[in-house]
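Quick one:
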Amino acid sequence: MPAPVIPANAGISDAVLTRVSAAAALFAGRPRHSAPSALCRTPRIVKLPVVPEPVPAVIVAAGRGVRFGGPIPKPVATLAGKAVVAMSVEAMAAGGCTHAIVVIPRNGEHHFQPALAASPIPVTLVEGDETRQASVRRGLTAILRDPHLADSRVVLVHDAVRPLVPATVVDRVIRRVSEGAVAVAPAIPVSDSIRAEDEHGRLTIVDRDRLRAIQTPQGFDLAVLSASHDYCAEQGIDCTDDLSVCEAAGHQVVIVRGAMTALKITSATDLDLAHAFLKLRKGLGRHSFRRVLRHRPFAWVVKPADPAPVIRSEP
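Output:
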């Protein structure tokens, strides 16, 4: 493009005329809308999706259910049309767990695979042992042998027959372990009057203000819990829960606020009580499926095409 011609009688001073002519000559021949050079462009920042750290949950469902009775295992009994164990897995998923290791009775997968077919998180079935403590240890072994879960830091252990634990409690336990605690359990105050009975039948009043009822899920540092189970097995120490396993190995335990709805279903009467709790929650309740979708946004679409794999126990 030729430089513009400014008439001599335009009333412009010689100094201004000189500057305009120099600028016109400088940009002569340059495209009006030239693209900036590659060096001047602002770099594009691409945000990669954050892959959450795996948080597996060992869900104990290998009990014989003697007090409950019936022809099927207690964890696959239905509550509001859904298996109790399936509701427990959903509760763990709603609170932040990414995988479920369900410990089942030997040769019992035909009960559990259909019940867990629509689980929102991956499920692995592991055959249990004669005691709860030994069954949990089998579940931990399955985690440590899984290349995707072996490096997990936080692990939860949950009773399959506590299907109504709120997602807020699960999240509370996970957060406390993530903050540095090695053994955490939810607990609620004891509301009943308590008496201790000695060998002669004499009763003594117990101050209930200092008592707490321990619930599940209990959360742990995976390495600490695994080592504590190994220690108790070597020493022949029997414990009623995994919090006691860590205490027996010398670790300090922490409790967080639990929930009254996280009752343990041990009898048919407990199942009726759980139905009553469900009516009070009016439908979706605290660990609604919306909370599951928050952690796994495609849980409503993706369902396992094959039954959950089974890890057999040694004969």
